[in-house]
Structures are given as C-alpha cells and as structure tokens.
Amino acid sequence: MNERVAQEPRADHRSPTRGLGGVRRAAPRTLVPALLAAIAYVDPGNFGVNITSGALHGYSLVWVVVFASGSAMVIQYLAAKLGMVTGKSLAEHSSERFPGVGRVLLWAQAELVVVMTDLAEIVGGAIALRLLFGMPIMVGAVCVTVFSLVVLALRFRGRSQFESVVLVLLVVIIASLAWQVGIADVDSAALLRSLVPGPLDSSAALLAVGIVGATVMPHALHFHSAASRGDVTAPGAGPDLHHDDPDRVAQRLRAGRRTVRSVVIAMTVAGAANVSLVVFSAALPSGAGTGIETAYAALLAHAGQLAATMLAVALLASGLAATLVGVQTGDVVMQGFGRRPISPLLRRLVAVVPALVLLWLGVEPTSALVWSQVVLSFALPGTLVPLLLFTRDRRLMGALANHPLTTVAATLVTAVIVGLCTYLVLQGF
C-alpha cells in the first residue's frame, strides 16, 4: 500500500479538516475517519455471521476473517485517499465518471447496500433489546428505527456529536468482546491451524461469503471516502494541488503515509473483534445451537449472567453505532448520485421498510443477518472496481496514484471475492 514518499515538510495545523458531522478536528486527521469506518466492520451483521460460523464450523473459518480483514486494509486505504486527494466521495466520482445508465446502475447498487446495512442494524438492535429487556422483536425494531430518525433530526439541527458517540460505542464493543474471549475455553493449537485456508462445503461457503460481505463492507467505502474529505480551501487539499508545487506534493505524500497507519490500526481493531466473535462462539458447548440468541442462552447457562449481558450490550452498541454511520452513508450516497433533493426523513423511512417487513413476516433474525451480508458480498465488485479505477488514475490522484503493487493487491482481493460468490452460486447456495 505504500506509495513513494518524499521528504516530509512540517505539518500545517492552521486549517483543520471538517468531518461528516460538521465537527472540525485537528490531528489525527486520518485516524478518526478510519475508526468511524471500522464500525461497519463490527456491525450486527458481523455478529450474526461470525457467531453462526463459529457455532457450526468451530475455528475453521478464521482464515476467511483474517483474509477479509487484510483485504479491508487495502480497500479502505484506497477509499480514504480518494476522498483526501480529490475532496470528493466515491459516489460523486462514480456519478461523474459513469453518466447515464452506468450512473443509475451504480446508484441502485449503492442503495441496495444501504438497505441491506439498515436491515442488519435494525435486526441486530432488535435482538439486543429482546435479550436485554424482553422486548418483542418488532417493538425493538421500531425503537431502533425511531433512534435513527432522532439522530437524523438532531444532525440537521446542528446538535450532532456523531464522532464522539460512535467512538465510545466502538470502545464498548471491543471491551465486551475481549471479555468474552477472556472467559472462553480457547483451543490455541486449533486456532493457529485455522489460519491455513481449507476446503469449503456448501454451508461453509455461504458463511465465508457472508463473512467477506460483513467484513469488506461496500457502504464503508462510500462512508470513508466522504469522511476523509478535507477542507478543499486548505493548503494541501483539493484535486489539483499535485501538479506543480513540490511542497504540496510532499505534504500529500506525508498524508498518504499517515492514512496507511490509520487504516492499519482501525482495521486491526475491527479484525480482532471479528476473530473474537468466531473464537468465543466456537468455544461454546457443543449442541448449544447457532445464532446470536442461542449463544446468549449458552453463555447464560455456562458462564453466568454477566457474560451473557455483555454480549447483548456489545450487540446493542454495535446496532446503534452502525445506525449512526448508516444514516451518514445514506446521505453520502444520495448526495453523490442524486440530482434532485429528496427528504432525508423520507429516504430513511424507505430504507428501513425491508427490515421491518421481514421481521413482521417472521423471518428468523440471525438468518436475516447472515443473508444480508451475503447480498453485500455480491454487491462488492460494483463498489471495488470503480474505486480501483479512480485511485490508479494518475491524472486524478497525482502523487498518490496507486503503486503497481497496490493495484495488484486490490485486483486480487476483487478476484477472490468474485470467485467466492461464483463458488457459492455453483454450490446452489
């Protein structure tokens, strides 16, 4: 991922960047957006698919989680530097570069991603509320929906504390999952062996695709590219500053190094959380069943109330944090692709309808989570290919255009994801 780096000038702190929530912040300018994007990698969909994979297949799919986490580092770096260099989001570039039918298809794909992400957030939050307070699943889903609408209203009234709240919730998630692993009976030798890729039967293939979709989240690319946009009037910002000024070129290269470090830190945190989900669920007693609620029941029976409650708290924090990021991502997609203003409230209500309908029809919640992540995997190439094309374009990216090795790595990631999806189709799901 490392591009060529010139001599680094002294940082200019006179022009702080502006985040999605409208909050100006000083350094670190790249770590906060990366950590915010990391929430997409520990949302309820990750809970559903990773807990199910651990319960059904033990540690055998840990290698998929590790691959997906490593892949996330590469592509999140591309998304972050696209926004940082050009001052535009991935959605904005896609709309401009692929007008007409291409724009409509990419927009539809992005909106499908938002809907599937909303489904995971609402279903996961509803499960957590049922575990913690005994709420019926539909009541919990409505509560999470109302929460997202309140967040939307507060943001438009200028009262959003988006970044601070999301980061606090991320800490709650990580701490809770670390506790689960700490009390689990982990087979260290089997865990190490699971890092070597193995064959996938149809059940494992479905979960592997779900793990990739849950970990390499398409909507996180839209979000991170927008969250990394700087103030385009500031020194070293904007799409055209790499043409003539050596000092600004050096400043941009320095920012690229900082972005690499930030993405590695954030994705390592998210990857550790995902591995933790597989590890603790694999350590549950055999015959405990699959799914989040059965994992909660097994923890309650064998580890006590505190362990079970902490799992539910982590899931609720995940759902609420992902909802905050999802609200922002929906706006990013609409602003990038849309040409006519649509009420944010109306857009949000339309996005949450599929989740509410599925729960009303009685679909098993954890199954809904798993399948939402499978859909995200199938949607990934439509996000990865444009991102790769933009970031390898030297006319657009200047000094931070992809190094050939970066392009090769991102291409391999895309090829493996397409291969997994194709394998799943050939297996007949």
Structure description:
With 429 residues, this protein is mainly α. It is 72% helix and 1% strand. The chain has a two-stranded antiparallel sheet. Helix 2 (44-57) crosses helix 11 (246-282), helix 5 (101-133) packs across helix 6 and helix 5 runs antiparallel to helix 15 (365-379).
Q: Rg to the nearest angstrom?
A: 21 Å
The helix-strand sequence is EEHHHHHHHHHHHHHHHHHH
Task: State the share of residues found in helices, binned by percent.
Answer: over 70%
Provide a count of the helices.
18
* Class by SSE composition: mainly alpha
Instruction: Determine the mean pLDDT.
Output: 81
Oligomer: single chain
Rough outline: globular
In the sheet with the most strands, the strands line up as 1-2
Span between N and C termini?
34 Å
Count every beta strand, where a strand is a DSSP E run of 2 or more residues.
2
Strand percentage, roughly? under 5%
Question: What low-confidence regions span 5 or more consecutive residues with pLDDT below 50?
Answer: 4-27, 231-243
Q: Could you describe the largest sheet, including whether it forms a barrel?
A: 2 strands, antiparallel
In short:
With 429 residues, the chain is mainly alpha-helical.
